[in-house]
Every structure is written in C-alpha cells, then in structure tokens.
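Field log, afternoon session.

UNIT: design team B
ACTIVITY: writing a sequence onto a fixed backbone
BACKBONE:
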C-alpha cells in the first residue's frame, strides 16, 4: 500500500481537498500497527486553502520508550527513511512514502516525535493558528511564493527559510530540533 517516495523540487500548488482524506486513511493504517500512538495531520495540507508542496505531513506521537517500535512499525508498513541531504536523525526520524488515492499519487512525510516533546505542541499549535485565520494563511502562502521566486526549491532549504515566518506567528523560537 505504501509506495516508494519520489523526491522533487518544492512547489506551491493549490490546496487539495482530498489531502485530509489521505491523512485520515494513513493515520488509521498507522493506528492498526501502533495503537498506543496518536497521529495528527499537520502542515499545509491540514489547513483548508493553504497552498503548498502537496505533501501530506503526519505527526506520529509515540509514548515514552516506544521510538524503536514506532520506527519498526512504519518500516514494516513500507515507509522509507528520508532521502536527500541532511535527513532527520534516527533519534527523531521522519519516514516518507506515497499512496494512491482517488486516481492520484500523494507523497507522505511521517514525523516521528515523542508525545512529551515540545515539538509536538509546536506543530499542532501552528496548524491550529493557520486554521483559525485565513489572512494568516494568505500571508504564509505569499511567503512561500516569495521563497520560490527567489529560487529556494530544495526541501530542507525551503523549510529553514520559512522558519522566521513561523516563529513570528508563534511568538517564539522553534523548539530545538537537532538534525
């Protein structure tokens, strides 16, 4: 069911209303393998009207001591280790994959984070702020388009360049996420 991931340059495509369905489907799949975890849909695809890369980002929150089990279960489902330069470390991994849905292929990022990590609350809080304010969504999309117009099309560089905008919205520096 989980297909090979395809690395591509960053784009800023219109929001796809099918992305929440994909997220729900993959969250349910993960829950069958890891019932003690929580899966949250995060990122632009979790926010109606938020244009972005079109990658369905999921936040897999595991309980204390269950990191190895979470990694193993995702690997068994067919998710792959993050490709490319500067991948997340295995102490805070990201798994990738793709799935076919409604005739199209959706890329997936599964961020594997301890449930008690400050990062967990940060990611969901940013998503919730965007969901509550369409003007903020418009400003975020405008920032993404500015970065692309400036030639920032590599995933890690793009994520880093968005950081100041996100930190401005959150009113604080992002939790330290060593990579």
């Amino acid at each position: 069911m989980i297909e090979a991931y395809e690395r591509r340059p960053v784009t800023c495509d219109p929001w796809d209303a099918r992305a929440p369905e994909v997220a729900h489907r993959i969250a349910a799949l993960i829950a069958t393998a890891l019932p003690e975890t929580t899966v949250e849909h995060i990122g632009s695809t979790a926010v109606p009207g938020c244009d972005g890369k079109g990658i369905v980002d999921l936040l897999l929150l595991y309980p204390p001591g269950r990191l190895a089990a979470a990694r193993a279960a995702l690997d068994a489902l067919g998710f792959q280790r993050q490709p490319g330069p500067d991948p997340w470390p295995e102490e805070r991994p990201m798994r990738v994959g793709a799935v076919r849905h409604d005739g199209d292929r959706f890329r997936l990022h599964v961020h594997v984070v301890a449930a008690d990590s400050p990062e967990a609350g940060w990611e969901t809080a940013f998503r919730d702020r965007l969901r509550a304010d369409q003007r903020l969504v418009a400003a975020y999309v405008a920032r993404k388009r500015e970065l692309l117009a400036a030639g920032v099309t590599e995933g890690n560089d793009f994520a880093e360049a968005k950081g100041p905008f996100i930190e401005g919205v959150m009113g604080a520096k992002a939790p330290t996420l060593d990579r």
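LOG NOTE: The domain at 19-170 is CATH 3.30.460.10 (Beta Polymerase; domain 2).
NEXT ACTIVITY: expression trials, pending approval
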